[in-house]
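As a next step, we paired sequence with structure tokens, yielding the entry below.
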Amino acid sequence: MNRLVDATSPYLLQHKDNPVDWWPWSAEAFTEAARRDVPVLISVGYAACHWCHVMAHESFENEQVGALLNDNFVSIKVDREERPDVDAVYMTATQAMTGQGGWPMTVFATPDGTPFFCGTYFPRPNFVQLLQSVATAWREQREAVLGQGAAVVEAIGGAQAVGGPTAPLDAPLLDAAAAKLASEYDATNGGFGGAPKFPPHMNLLFLLRHHQRTGDPGSLEITRHTAEAMARGGIYDQLAGGFARYSVDAHWTVPHFEKMLYDNALLLRVYTQLWRLTGDPLARRVARDTARFLADELHRPGQGFASALDADTEGVEGLTYAWTPAQLVEALGEEDGRFAADLFTVTEEGTFEHGMSVLKLARDVDDAAPEVRARWQQVVGRLLAARDTRPQPALDDKVVAAWNGLAITAIAEFQQVAAVYASPKDEDANLMDGVTIVADGAMRQAAEHLASVHLVDGRLRRVSRDGKVGEPAGVLEDYGCVAEAFCAMHQLTGEGRWLTLAGELLDTALAHFPAPGGAFYDTADDAERLVARPADPTDNATPSGRSALIAGLVAYSALTGETRYREAAEAALGTVAPIVGKHPRFTGYAATVGEALLSGPYEIAVVTDDPAGDPLVAAARRHAPPGAVVVAGRPDQPGVPLLADRPLVEGRSAAYVCRGFVCQRPVTSVEELVAELG
């Protein structure tokens, strides 16, 4: 009996017709294993994972494998995105046992959940042999199996330990982190390290803030070069916008084609802030088109943002996206086909598989002559129309609270910068206006969806689908990312209710997630008990729960003036500080928030009757120091602490600037405000 038919997870639903008697993660599954006295297979993956699909087709859809599993195991299927706590615990076990990790993750455990053998992808012959060996060992070498499990649990406990050394995250430490990143920088291709190469979005956010605080030109150049290399590479969709998960090579040419919400949200912030600080036209275009991708491709009407577009189309990677020169000619005609092949580096040899090429932008066209840009955009539109007739990748349409928080924050920042740079003279001003309108609507719907659907009895739930909230409880990253998003909504809209909601989430996190020494666990004190309680301080594909919560605490403290939230943020940041200087590639978001605290962060309140059009508001957002909060509206607007007791000055708009709870006199001119922020 396969029990996945009623799952809310698209990943679990992909397995509902397997010949395996799958269970969802539940106490009942472990009870059944104990009743039968058999081990548990815990198979962890996610809907957009290519090798998860491969293992499913090879093994879990196979009748022989299904019979082996059903006779000898209780099999549990877990969506790592729906249950990041379960994934974290067993990934730590897998890494401790094998020295590496990844998905699909394959774990064998005792009926109490203790892992005793871990791995990742297994081809079917190897998997069949493994199933037979584990079943035999369970029957004939039980004592050795249990001893192995005890050793793994001990290793997990050490890896997840809290209460270690702390240190202030001060300027020398952040300077050392920036220097360490510079030493690991790939000056030829951009980014850090070799293949596979992941977009280093959080490191780039840190380097942008570091440059703004220190004036370091190297930090800006690393960010600018990496952003350009990614945007011109195959990892970026040259037709529809949006970034793939990673590049299989060191030069951003061939992606792993899945497109994740969290990557695109964080990269939208990078390109938006690069645009804000430099006015770079490429950064402007990529920010605009990434915002459009989020709103058009991932937003679910009336709900939030979907999690991902699949890596595969009909079981084939790249089927939707790759081209040959002949296909370009077929879609565009001979002349434009040759133009497109030259511009997008499509060759007879191919850059991908079977003579196909992934589109790359061979030249910088953002500063090209108007007629070249017009031809490029016309070709892009025609190719996209042709591509739309191809089979399309599947959508993982579940809504994850934390990732939606990241997207809301990113779009709120994009909206603010787009307003700063709004100009009727832009040749694509209508396109930018259209994107900001659509993105604004998607952002607001997502925020409302989190507030009305994911908040249940004052607690966050992790996921929803088709407007229905799922059972998994929110973890620390959900509370942190959503609280930061609600703070961003408060700044963008001037509405007090978003700040109130943010405060309630932070209070819940402070009450239910604290760990010794100022740290935080990733699961609540009343959550389901696993074999270990995860507390990972490092930033990986997304901000760690700890970094996300610190960011929310810092923003909320600046917006309200309540120091206890800042004190909690500083204590938690101190638990990450020992890692920052040594391993900055895995603490990018923590370092980003650290730059905000070193900067102040500044608190900028603009009292005005015209928050949308006042030049003081535009200047505040254009020149805001790292991590600054900016609020604009009428004096004493309800629910907006930064506007309280701050009147107009002689009937004129005024900007009030504070830093570290010390305030300057109000100013009424753009020049005076820029001088105070400089």
